[in-house]
Specification:
The structure is a single chain. 39% of the residues lie in helices and 14% in strands. With 420 residues, the protein is an alpha/beta fold. A seven-stranded mixed beta sheet has the order 1-7-6-5-4-2-3, sandwiched between helices. β2, α5 and β3 form a beta-alpha-beta unit. α1 runs antiparallel to α3 and α3 runs parallel beside α12. It is globular and about 75 Å long. It binds pyridoxal-5'-phosphate. Pyridoxal-5'-phosphate binds next to α4 and α5.
Length: 420
């Protein structure tokens, strides 16, 4: 099936006389006929037993997203940050390291550089455009993964996923891709060699600014028995000797993430949140099409304005990532544009405060047009050096083009630029 159909039908198939719409199973727990059955579930969870780590409504959404990405399984989390965190913790323990491109979401930089460091896990940042030799030279004996973002937030750099996948695989480790901005509608990283995909579903997937969430998706393609991942090939004593690679095959990674990490950390979404996420997913393909269409028009408007120094949007032929975007994002480059306004930070703030329709908020990839000044908001915690590495100029504004009529969006921008 194609994406439009999957978004409506994957994950939930009602039986005869069952509700047409996926029901909200708002229950913390599930009952069983025998003590023995419950006992068995503690050795091998084959049914829902407690909503800290699995729930029927959330499971429907997990199946839908796995299907959209072309993976073998998925696990929802209560935020995108939780998805990033668990995607790494499922591979790295204290004493391990992993490699990440530096052009990633500011919150992820902080998680990787500050918080994981306190856990004894080292993140080695690399320039995504560095040569293969240079990236290769960063690998250590204890390096367990490579991480990058399809469309970096907010620099809007398009990642060469195939290049990173090749380097990761040469070193026997998986490639994790944060596919939040692209969504599986615009890019399916597994087709280019990624092994694990994560999302902040808070953005386009939910799409309506209703609830924070995340998801981890497993391609099922990585060989966990290559000698580098003993946690996958040796018995897990907390489940009476389960061996993930042996017992769960292609789903080893995602089952392990649930059985170990979600069980212990419990950052699982509520059924009601999953229900709302599903509503967003149902219209994702048609929304993405319109976001791309509107954003391209807005980007072209910015391009011809003499108040704007630079426009970053990879669907523009002049953009440095245009050729790569044609390969990885052939249907469009999402609704997010980065602009650098002439007159630096001061004019950036004046422009943003002069907008009437577009709102100034800590959000992106939403149904309503919104703007954000990363240097004073999401990326505030970064040093100047980290800001430059993340591709964030102090005058840079992130414009998240929504689904209003594009003429109204442009008229609003025009009236604010005129006042500068
Ligand atoms: C927002 C975002 C995150 C973090 O997700 P939350 O849902 O806010 O926790 C991670 N990656 C990217 C690319 C994001 O835009």
């Amino acid at each position: 099936m194609k994406d439009e159909t999957k978004c409506l039908h994957s994950g939930y198939t009602p039986e005869n006389g069952a509700p047409r719409v996926m029901p909200i199973v708002q229950s913390t727990t599930y009952t069983f006929d025998s003590t023995e059955h419950i006992g068995e579930l503690f050795d091998m969870p084959t049914a829902h037993m407690y909503s800290r780590f699995s729930n029927p409504t959330v499971e429907c959404v997990e199946k839908k997203i796995a299907d959209l990405e072309g993976g073998v399984g998925a696990m929802c989390t209560s935020s995108g940050q939780a998805a990033s965190l668990l995607s790494i913790l499922n591979l790295c323990s204290a004493g391990d390291s992993f490699i990440s491109t530096s052009t990633i979401y500011g919150g992820t930089v902080n998680l990787f550089a500050v918080t994981l460091k306190r856990f004894g896990i080292e993140c080695i940042f690399v320039d995504a455009e560095a040569s293969e030799e240079e990236i290769q030279s960063k690998f250590k004996e204890n390096t367990k993964a490579v991480f990058g973002e399809t469309l970096a937030n907010p620099a809007l750099a398009v990642l060469d996923i195939e290049k990173l996948a090749a380097i990761a695989h040469k070193n026997g480790v998986p490639l994790i891709i944060d596919n939040t901005f692209a969504t599986p509608v615009l890019c399916k990283p597994f087709q280019f060699g990624a092994d694990i995909v994560i999302h902040s579903t808070t953005k386009y997937m939910d799409g309506h600014a209703l609830q924070v969430g995340g998801v981890i998706v497993d391609s099922g393609n990585f060989d966990w028995e290559n000698g580098k991942f003993p946690e996958f090939t040796e018995p897990d004593e907390s489940y009476h000797g389960v061996i993930y690679a042996r017992d769960f095959g292609k789903q080893a990674y995602i089952v392990k993430a649930r059985m170990q990490l979600m069980r212990d950390f419990g950052c699982y979404p509520a059924a009601h949140s999953a229900f709302l996420l599903n509503l967003g997913l149902e219209t994702l393909p048609i929304r993405m099409e319109r976001y791309c269409e509107n954003a391209l028009k807005v980007a072209k408007y910015f391009q011809q304005s003499d108040k704007i120094e630079e426009v970053k949007y990879s669907a523009l032929p002049e953009d440095e990532y245009y050729q790569r975007a044609k390969k990885y994002l052939p249907k469009g480059s999402c609704g997010v544009i980065s602009i650098v306004i002439k007159g630096g930070k001061e004019n950036a703030v004046r422009f943003m405060d002069g907008l009437k329709l577009a709102s100034n908020e800590v959000h992106v990839a939403d149904i309503r047009t919104c703007v954000l000044h990363p240097a004073s908001a999401t990326h505030r915690q970064l040093t100047d050096e980290q800001l430059i590495a993340a591709g964030v100029n102090p005058g840079l504004i992130r414009v998240s083009v929504g689904l209003e009529n594009v003429e109204d969006i442009i008229a609003d921008i025009e009236q604010s630029l005129e006042k500068l």
